[in-house]
Design a protein that fits this description.
257 residues, alpha+beta, five-stranded antiparallel sheet, 4 helices, 66% helix, signal, UCP028069, DUF3450 domain-containing protein
């Protein structure tokens, strides 16, 4: 074979090889592109799945939060109903208290004049009664009148004091008592020992036990006591002061008319 022919064969072979290589390169490019697109799709799918997972988690959180809000709303509704019931009950109690306050004010308007009448009646009674502890009882009336003019003393306290004075006056009708005081007789003030048996007997004896007097409530004056009663009166005074045991004694009692 000639050199020219060999050269042509070699050239043809190289050309064939190059053509085959180019053909393979051309056919490989679309596959690469497809693989790249698939990779992009997979990456996009992963991102999308992550987004979906995130949205799902958010949805679950919102659902839990929603259910919590619903539960809280129900609880608040129940609580609000409860509070509303309490408010109505408190308002009813306030209205009741207000009515009571109004009633108290009306009662006070009636009680205050009543107390003044009670004090006047008590003072009149003392003036007509046996003068047992007369000065002390008169001073109690003045204290009551002063109490009625004091703004810092409640009406209830004033009324309590008036009732207390009545109770003290009522106690003078029971028991025996002896105390030292001054007796006005024939223009003289004589220091004596007074003795009372309830309101039935009111007697007085001089401190030397030589003279005695008996109160005449009808005549509103003192009368000389018969000497026969002096020793009994002395004993009665000692009994009232618990210096002697209680015993039967003879004392004058004015008959009721």
């Amino acid at each position: 074979m000639s050199k020219v022919s060999k050269r042509n064969i070699i050239s043809a072979s190289i050309a064939g090889i190059m053509a085959l290589g180019c053909s393979q390169m051309v056919s490989a490019d679309p596959l690469n592109e497809i693989q790249k697109e698939e990779d992009k799709i997979r990456v996009a799918a992963v991102k999308s799945q992550k987004k979906i997972d995130g949205i799902f988690e958010q949805t679950q959180e919102l659902l839990v939060e929603y259910r919590s809000v619903i539960d809280e709303t129900e609880n608040l509704k129940v609580y609000n109903d409860h509070v509303a019931t309490l408010v109505r009950s408190q308002q009813e109690e306030i209205d009741s208290l207000q009515r009571q306050i109004d009633s108290i004010e009306e009662t006070k308007r009636g009680v205050v004049p009543l107390m003044y009448r009670m004090i006047d009646a008590l003072e009149q009674f003392i003036e007509l009664d046996v003068p047992i502890n007369y000065e002390k009882r008169k001073a109690r009336i003045e204290t009551l009148r002063d109490l009625m003019t004091r703004a810092n003393v409640s009406v209830s306290e004033q009324f309590r004091k008036v009732l207390e004075a009545y109770k003290i006056e009522n106690e003078y009708g029971d028991g025996i008592q002896a105390y030292t005081g001054t007796l006005a007789y024939n223009g003289q003030d004589i220091t004596v020992d007074f003795f009372r048996l309830g309101r039935t007997v009111f007697l007085a004896q001089s401190l030397d036990q030589k003279s005695g007097w008996m109160w005449n409530n009808q005549a509103r004056t003192w009368e000389v006591l018969d000497e026969e009663y002096l020793s009994s009166l002395t004993k009665a005074i000692k009994m009232a002061r618990k210096l002697e045991p209680v015993d039967l004694i003879k004392l004058p009692v004015r008959a009721a008319e």
